[in-house]
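re: ur question from earlier - yeah i can do the single chain one, its not a big deal. heres the input i used so u can compare w yours
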Amino acid sequence: MLTPRVKILVALTVFLVIILSVFFYVENSRSHPDLSRLALVGDSITQITSYPDQLQSLIGLNSTIGNFGASGSTVTLNSIEPYLTNCSMQLLQDFQPTTVVVMLGTNDARSDVYPFIDRFIDDYKELVFFLKSLESDPQIFLVIPPPIYDNNINLSSENFTLGIIPRIEEVAKELNLPIIDVYTHMLYHPDYFVDGVHPNHDGAKIIADVIYSKIT
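and the output i got, formated as tokens:
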């Protein structure tokens, strides 16, 4: 027959096991996001390249991927096509994603948008706060987009490297969000692009591979 002291020790042991089990379950959930409804937020790099399809192939049919890319869209609200006011946002809201991968910032390096660079961090936070407010409470990943090479669509590599990338990193740091660095994996590889901005099939595969490795 167990003594009262032994009973107390057994009860405490069971209690600690339960607490630790809950803790490890929560930590595991955080490190392994729910990919059942994965939303890809971005500009034309998301909308028109094959990276979403290649990512779907990697993840498999247990995940439904929604391509919510909007060509020409920016983080900055002071542009003709801010993502936050794009019709894709309503579609995204209807989709109720469990995980969101955001790859924006390329078009913010354009000469007519870059003068508003001081608004970039606050505008990006506003976008993230909207995503966080969704009923599905998605886990959010921020992506550093691919490099910008020589192009004829008025996108500046210097603006992107010196102005956009540090601000994406700052937003991720301030909001404690995981960041996915696609940029570094595609640096010094203009051969991955069809026009200096949009990845070809090989470039899209790099994007899909890098994102897949970080969200699984």
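Strands lie at 37-42, 64-69, 99-103, 139-144, 179-181. not sure if urs matches, ping me
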